[in-house]
């Protein structure tokens, strides 16, 4: 099957009709959604709001799944792009380059925010572990100083006594 490269109005059709620009724009849209979800995630982490955070993480996973499906189509288009980009008109080439730059920036911002959130959650976890350890130590200390329970024996062994 021959490879067709056609560019018109910033569209680049590659390999069987896949439009590289359209695929990159879809990827940008998904990254923008992911970034918005990441910003909401920050707010939920700050408020320690667990249930909505779990729901949001489910939403994020759906977007990531869409990105994964899109990535296989993009991989083929990118290979063709690398081979044929010199024959594509400058306007379309520049548009693709702008989209790729935007994708890199969005991904960098998302990864940076996720790293901050991860560090915040790790610090919160360590703080909770420390608080639990203190509570447990307090309980143990309290138990050590508590009076011994009264002997509640019902029967008294008097076999050693001489009468």
CATH architecture: Up-down Bundle
Which percent bin holds the helix content? over 70%
- Return the domain count: 1
In CATH's first tier, which class applies? Answer: Mainly Alpha
Poorly predicted regions are 1-9
- Give the CA-based shape: rod-shaped
Q: How much of the sequence is in beta strands? A: 5-15%
CATH topology: Methane Monooxygenase Hydroxylase, Chain G, domain 1
Structural class: mainly alpha
Number of helices: 3
Describe this structure in words.
This protein has 163 residues and is mainly alpha-helical. The protein has one domain (6-135): Methane Monooxygenase Hydroxylase, Chain G, domain 1, CATH 1.20.58. The chain contains 3 helices and 3 strands. The protein has helices spanning 20-47, 50-84, 90-145; strands at residues 6-8, 11-14, 18-19. The chain has a 3-stranded antiparallel β-sheet. α1 (20-47) packs antiparallel against α2 and α1 (20-47) packs parallel to α3. The termini are far apart.
């Amino acid at each position: 099957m021959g490879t067709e490269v056609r560019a018109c109005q910033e569209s680049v059709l590659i390999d069987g009709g896949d439009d590289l620009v359209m695929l990159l724009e879809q990827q940008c849209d998904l990254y923008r959604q992911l970034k918005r979800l990441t910003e909401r995630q920050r707010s939920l982490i700050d408020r320690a709001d667990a249930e909505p955070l779990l729901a949001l993480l489910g939403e994020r996973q759906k977007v990531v799944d869409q990105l994964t499906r899109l990535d296989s189509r993009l991989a083929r288009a990118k290979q063709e792009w690398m081979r044929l980009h010199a024959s594509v008109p400058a306007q379309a080439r520049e548009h693709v380059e702008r989209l790729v730059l935007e994708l890199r920036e969005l991904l960098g911002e998302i990864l940076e925010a996720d790293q901050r959130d991860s560090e915040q959650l790790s610090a919160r976890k360590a703080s909770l572990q420390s608080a639990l350890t203190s509570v447990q130590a307090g309980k143990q200390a309290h138990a050590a100083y508590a009076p011994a329970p009264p002997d509640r024996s019902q029967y008294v062994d008097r076999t050693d006594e001489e009468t």
